Amino acid sequence: MVLAERSIWVFIEQEYGVIEESSLEVLSKAREITDKSGGLVTGILLGWNIRDKARELGRYGAHKVIVVEDKILETYLSEPYADIVGWLIEERKPDYFLASATRNGRDLAGRLAVRFKTGLQAHVIELDINEDGLLVGHVPGFGGNIVAVVKNIKGKPQMATVAIGVFTPKKLWSEAEVEVVDYKVEVERLNMRIIERVKREVVDISKSKRVVVAGMGTGGDLELVRKLSETIAADIGVTRPLADIGVAPRDIQIGSTGVSLNADLAIIVGASGAPHFVSGIRNVKTVISINKDPEAPIKEFSDYYIIGDLFEILPRLIEKLKR
């Protein structure tokens, strides 16, 4: 296949007309790849009264945007989204399909990978297409202890979900061509319905400038972490164990299976520095860690390392900062 004929599709997630920014991260990365190796980037946008948003997606990298509109598509629902995107893939046969590793992106990609019996790289932190036309991704493995270089060698489309915050959305290109496709969703045949929807407001900490990160050393008590974050106008993140026990939502979990930070400052309290966690702080400019273990692994990844009991240090630090 000639390079210029390659087609990369990017799922553009939206909710009630608001585009998910992590989709723009993937879109810009896809365009960087095609600018280098040839090909076309197509955004796949499902929603309701959404077509006016489509052309602007070109500025983030889409050559073209395929739009499908139906009232039931105004927020993500597994069945109709998978049916429609699957139908489009069968009709158009793209070479590659990418999605942000949000809950919805992971759900859709997994369903499509099973349907088309194709390989799916999950939570990639780097992405490219090699000279043989194979999708190559860097995937954290074994809890983040290694980063595996993975190639899709069988199945089509070649697929990957992209970790949130690892790429930057870039507004560098011109408006996209827009194609509106008619598709009648047979609502009465759906097995799933949204009965009640509760929306929780969560900060996208991949964009935060300052973050206070809590680990298991806090014992799940985030009172001092919240006070410190309020004092320095920072957002809060947590390690995976705290998210596992339900102390904080997955949306603010940091690491290879969560969010990657791009902050100017991260203050990390009570985190040992497991490999799956430190992969999420590699882009932080300044890391300050507080830990009672003089040789905790997090020390190696810190610019400043304070040894001591966080429950003694944080109150004094907060008091100092308030003066």
Structure description:
- With 323 residues, the chain is an alpha/beta fold.
- The protein has two domains: 3-189, HUPs (Rossmann fold, 3-Layer(aba) Sandwich); 205-322, TPP-binding domain (Rossmann fold).
- The chain is built from eight helices and 17 strands.
- The protein has helices at 21-37, 51-54, 78-92, 103-116, 223-231, 240-244, 275-278, 310-322, and strands at 7-12, 14-15, 18-19, 40-47, 64-69, 96-100, 120-124, 126-129, 135-141, 146-151, 158-162, 177-180, 210-214, 235-238, 265-269, 286-291, 304-307.
- The strands form four sheets. A seven-stranded parallel beta sheet has the order 7-11-6-1-4-5-12, with helices on both faces. A five-stranded parallel beta sheet has the order 14-13-15-16-17.
- β9 (135-141) and β10 form a beta hairpin.
- The termini are far apart.
- The mean pLDDT is 92.
Mean pLDDT: 92
Low-confidence stretches: none
Q: How would you classify the helix and strand content by structural class?
A: alpha/beta
- CATH class membership of the largest domain: Alpha Beta
Oligomer: single chain
The fold-level CATH name of the largest domain is: Rossmann fold
Could you give the order of strands across the largest sheet?
A: 7-11-6-1-4-5-12
Question: Keywords for this structure?
Answer:
Rossmann fold; seven-stranded parallel sheet; 8 helices; 17 strands; five-stranded parallel sheet; single chain; 2 domains; about 325 residues; alpha/beta; about 25% helix
